[in-house]
Design brief:
Blueprint: E1 19-24, H1 30-37, E2 48-54, H2 58-68, E3 73-74, E4 92-95, H3 118-128, E5 132-138, H4 145-156, E6 162-164, E7 176-178, E8 189-197, H5 198-204, E9 215-216, H6 218-221, E10 231-232, H7 237-243, H8 263-266, E11 271-272, H9 284-292, E12 305-310, E13 315-320, E14 337-341, E15 349-360, E16 367-376, E17 383-389, H10 393-397, H11 441-447, E18 455-456, H12 460-469, H13 473-488
Parallel strand pairs: 1-2, 1-4, 2-3, 4-5, 9-10
Antiparallel strand pairs: 5-8, 6-8, 7-8, 11-18, 12-13, 12-17, 13-14, 14-15, 15-16, 16-17
Helix pairs in contact: 1-13
EC number: 2.1.1.37
Catalytic activity: a 2'-deoxycytidine in DNA + S-adenosyl-L-methionine = a 5-methyl-2'-deoxycytidine in DNA + S-adenosyl-L-homocysteine + H(+)
GO molecular function: DNA (cytosine-5-)-methyltransferase activity; DNA binding
Length: about 500
């Protein structure tokens, strides 16, 4: 491994054609990567040049600096950052203010103070007066009090010399774009809000337009009302075909540093995407769950099924052979009975009797693992084993809600949204489509559109957080195209093959 630096001069064009960008809440640089990967047809290199980036997370800021230049990255709390006079004219301000308070994952309905950080974004826009500003956020942002406040500021307060660009009628909700519509092999819906300075609209004689889609859902692609002949969504298959040619890196060879590393080494070591095909070490229960969930399956595939762990190093997954209910009237598991093995070509039957409780669920305190006596069909005497239920009480009693928990990504479809804990299948549909494992950092980064040579800094959890929080690179490219077409005054096009995603 090595430290890596790329000067700001390498990241984009120079001279009159340069579009100068400030990236706030920059993370590892997903939006910046999209802006710099974008190529206007007939123009060599990127027109976009990032002149300042602000990111408080030290590992994310180090990743950003490794890819786009350290000298213009401010690793500070945005409340402490003041744009200096040396910043010069700024054409575009982009950023995704923290959004957890109005995310669908904030199930308690709490609006944390971190949501007020979006006001810092507004403060910077008011200070530097860019020609265009772009806010990227969760799909619920346009229905939040923060967005209502933004509208008020545009209409009557400090942003009154700006106008918000009306979203297209085809948007998937107010101001919502789907990354799959722009070439990402992932369905990720994000609110994208453009603001343009009114004097620019008057000078150019038009406003900015939202980017047109480059892809459509497979069902739309074959409809007669798809006269443009847009391609169907890219699928996750191409990512897994690529990762199948990679060696899974065992935990003993993990190239990412651990938190125990010295601070100077920790934040200077960088690893390219190509080296992030990192294996994990799931326990026996997790491995049994993974094996039990078939293609396209999820947590519901585990209902009524148990893993039997024998004293000899062997195990088998079983389910009841009779019609007795899995749970009794009190909700506890009814274990005693006759079971049959689950698996191709194995119809072995077992008579099982509980000999004691070994483990209870932490939240419900319901028994979930048992010491049992197992008598295999045709055997003369029972043997001792440990029996662990593969599902949970909550998964059993809730038919509604997300089915993505403990789910496999589907063959022939884009992936679900890549979040920060994609390496934990209990958090979503993050199992490999065919292999009995969660997706790797490498696969998640490719699903987000990051190139093989993008460099990452931090521990496994740091890098996972950076990947999951990033704007998909293809969506960033589409946003850049919309900005370029507005400021340039003509449709831009994209040079074919100039910016491969992987």
């Amino acid at each position: 491994m090595r430290t890596y630096d790329r000067s700001v001069a390498d990241q984009g064009a120079s001279g009159e054609d340069t579009i100068r960008v400030v990236d706030l809440f920059a993370g590892c640089g997903g939006l910046t990567q999209g802006f710099h990967a974008y190529r206007r047809k007939g123009v060599e290199g990127s027109r976009f040049r990032t002149v300042a980036a602000v990111e408080w997370d030290r590992a994310a800021a180090a990743s950003y600096g490794a890819n786009f230049g350290h000298e213009h990255v401010a690793n500070v709390d945005i409340t402490e950052w003041i744009p200096g006079d040396d910043l010069g004219e700024v054409d575009v301000v982009v950023g995704g203010p923290p959004c957890q308070g109005f995310s669908a994952l904030n199930r308690d309905g709490v609006r944390p103070e971190r949501n007020r950080l979006w006001e810092e974004y507004v403060r910077v826009v008011e200070a530097v007066r860019p020609k265009v500003f772009v806010i990227e956020n969760v799909d619920r942002f346009a229905r939040s009090p923060e967005f209502a406040d933004l509208r008020a500021r545009v209409e009557h307060a400090g942003l009154s010399d700006y106008e918000l660009v009306p979203p297209p009628a085809t948007a998937r909700g107010p101001f919502v774009l789907n990354a799959a519509d722009y070439g990402a092999p992932q369905t990720r819906r994000r609110a994208i809000v453009f603001g343009v300075r009114k004097d620019m609209v008057a000078r150019l004689g038009r406003s900015l337009a939202y980017p047109g889609a480059s892809h459509v859902s497979p069902s739309q692609a074959v409809r007669s009302d798809n006269p443009t002949g847009l391609a169907p969504w890219r699928t996750a298959d191409e990512v897994f075909e690529k990762s199948a040619m990679q060696r899974l890196v065992p935990t003993t060879e993990d190239p990412l540093p651990r938190r125990s590393s010295s601070a100077s080494d920790f934040y200077r070591r960088t690893v390219p995407t190509s080296q992030l095909h990192l294996a994990r070490r799931p326990g026996a229960l997790s491995r049994a769950r993974f094996r039990t969930i078939g293609p396209g399956g999820n947590r519901k595939s585990l209902r009524g099924r148990y893993a039997l762990f024998f004293e000899t190093p062997s195990e088998v997954v079983v389910e009841r052979a009779d019609q007795e209910p899995v749970r009794g009237a009190d909700g506890d598991l009814e274990v005693d009975g006759t079971y049959v093995a689950v698996g191709a070509g194995d119809a072995t039957r077992y008579v099982i009797a509980v000999d004691g409780v070994l483990e209870v669920e932490p939240r419900t305190r319901r028994p979930v693992a048992f010491a049992v006596k197992v008598q295999e069909e045709g055997s003369l005497s029972p043997v001792a084993a440990r029996m662990h239920y593969l599902s949970t009480y909550s998964w059993d009693v809730h038919d509604s809600g997300t089915g993505d928990v403990m789910g496999r990504l589907r063959i022939g479809q884009p992936s679900v949204t890549i979040r920060t804990e994609f390496f934990k299948p209990e958090k979503g549909r993050y199992l490999h489509p065919l292999e009995d494992r969660p997706i790797t950092h490498y696969e998640a980064a490719l699903l987000q559109g990051f190139p093989e040579d993008f460099r990452w800094c931090g521990s496994r959890s740091d890098v996972a957080r950076q990947i999951g929080n990033a704007v998909p690179v293809p969506l960033g490219m589409a946003i850049a195209r919309a900005v370029d077409e507005f400021l340039s005054g003509s449709p831009a096009g994209v040079t074919p093959g100039s910016a491969p995603l992987f």
